[in-house]
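Practice problem. Given the sequence and the SMILES for zinc ion, write out the predicted structure.
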Amino acid sequence: YLSTIFCRNPYVCLECGYHGCITLPRVISINRHDHRVSRSYHLGHGDWECGVCREKMHWPFGGFSCKRCPNYAVHSKCATRDDVWDGEELEDEPEEEEEEAPYKEVNENEIIHFSHEEHNLRLGDDNVIDCEKMRCDACILPINSDIFFKCVQCNFFLHKVCASLPRKKRNILHNHKVDLRVRDKPGKYFECIYCLQFFDGFRYTCKNSLKSFTRCSFKIDVRCGSISEPFNHELHPHPLYRTSRETKTCGACGQESDYVLSCTSCKFALGMECATLPRTVKHRCDDHVLSLHFGDGNSKSTQLWCDICEGKTDPRVWFYGCDSCGTTLHIKCVLGDMYYFKPGNKYLGAELVSNDGMTRPFCIVCKNRCMFPSYLKAVVDDSTVEYGCSMGCCTQDTSKGQDELLYTI
Ligand SMILES: [Zn+2]
Ligand SMILES: [Zn+2]
Ligand SMILES: [Zn+2]
Ligand SMILES: [Zn+2]
Ligand SMILES: [Zn+2]
Ligand SMILES: [Zn+2]
Ligand SMILES: [Zn+2]
Ligand SMILES: [Zn+2]
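Answer key:
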């Protein structure tokens, strides 16, 4: 390969031949770096690590580097991967303007957030007792002990972190910039394309969906939308990266996952559905806060049981547990599939009710007692009320669940 010597860029040359080198873009944006990167023919002496695949780069050869970050460089073949680069050459394009901030400060304690412009939001005070019951309108998770804003006039809450979610951002899982969407018709829900969880609340969508319906009409929940590199998880000792788009076995649940973060020090990979699990949760079956645990991996150790479904727990996968009580609970049992829905709201034409009453109703579909944190309650007529325990049950046999009423099943 003459071309290899010629342009000193063996990756691209071996991959695409001589013409590949010439057609390489000069200035591009990639989905995991805030600044543009431009093609450089040699990186300068040093130990370079590719900012995408995290493997070594040979400094005499070229790559893409950042003018503002002296240590950031990417292999040409990695920078131009179609899950990393949107295919646009930016050489003659002006730099993008600063994005609009998600909120304006009114005074020390009050803001106006673009999702709720009609009222001011005030920094919440610490002595609120019912923090578990209050849900953030962006991520739908309980406010708990996090810093939050509360609307001065209505029941609208935002974690401070969620109020600061950028209105436009890059995301390591998609090659276009995504936009924060905040409102929709009541009762509308979404399914995150990466973690496959149903959710309500804020979400990221791709502007490109307006142009090409086939490729980008998807929703990303704020959990997946906020994932960045390096991704640190307290249950794994090394940082994780989105180095490849291969399907891998998730080290947390043991299932094949289409979207994984990988460890560059060991073989561990973490699927998005597990990477975004709440690290701590409250559940009625334990007085303490439960946290994510990994099993000891030993199938010969004493069999543990889930107190919610009374089934066995698998020592090879993650679970929610309490160290003081020795509680071990299946993740699916603790969260159900409506954990990111807001109790009190209507979904599928039925009201989502917290499952914390004295008795638990029977699901009309699976005929079992509802065991998840909340259930759907549909008032059919004066004398009939029906219950559904999960989206899994309530959207069965309906091709598009969204518009179907629970009681029409
Ligand atoms: Zn690379
Ligand atoms: Zn940079
Ligand atoms: Zn939140
Ligand atoms: Zn309000
Ligand atoms: Zn997600
Ligand atoms: Zn998993
Ligand atoms: Zn590792
Ligand atoms: Zn269980």
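Check your answer against the key. Residues 1-20, 398-409 have pLDDT under 50 and may be disordered.
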